[in-house]
Amino acid sequence: MSDASSPAPVTAPDMLELAALLCSRVCHDLISPVGAIVNGLEVLDDDPKPEDREFALDLIRKSAKTASARLQFCRLAFGAAGSSGAQIDLGDAQTMARGHIEDGKCSITWNLPRLLLPKNRVKLLLNMLVVAQHTIPRGGMLVVDPIGEGETMSFRITATGHNARLPQNISELLSGERGPAADAHAIQPYYTRLLAQACGLTVTLKPEGEAIIVTAS
């Protein structure tokens, strides 16, 4: 008799479902700033007082900047930027990562050299940063370090912050162990695992003292 308490195996989505889930993830990231832009425009349409007008314009400016940063990040992290054999500048990846993640609560220390790496390796790095950010929901620091050098470089990200924790089921999705089926919430770490496999790597997520470490090796 099977153990009733054993978790169900991961159910891999087919290609169409994977594309749909990734699109849902991108839309989720964009709904908030785009909605704020709409709210600001509605305030302007109401012929507001000068102070309300300035507030609305400031909201629109900040939200448009946030939406642009998230779009650029998602295009590289989840999209098909460049050709299948393209290489991407780590300096550009750093700029996109800072624009998407640094928000006054979370900051990045980037210890990677500026060089060109294969596209999937850079996509993996950006997705590892998203995973690491989820471990410090109240903000903190992400330190990005290289493992090895050159085109075979992999990455180690150290997340530190108040109440740093392992998000539920993320480790299982990254490792391919038993866990929940991939859904719109879990698709990003699942996709991170697919990227790691394409690079011949494995991503692990584990606590180390008061920090959480995300490693691709």
Would you mind describing this structure in some detail?
- It holds the Pfam family HPTransfase.
- This is Histidine phosphotransferase.
- Residues 91-210 form the Histidine phosphotransferase ChpT C-terminal domain.
- The protein is an alpha+beta fold.
- Helices cover 48% and strands 18% of the residues.
- The chain is built from 6 helices and 7 strands; from the N terminus they run ααβαββαββααββ.
- The strands form 2 sheets. Strands 2-4-5-7-6 form a 5-stranded mixed sheet.
- The longest helix is centred in the N-terminal third of the chain and has 31 residues, at 15-45.
- The chain is globular, with a radius of gyration of 19 Å.
- It starts with 14 loop residues before the first helix and ends with a strand.
- Residues 1-5 have low confidence and may be disordered.
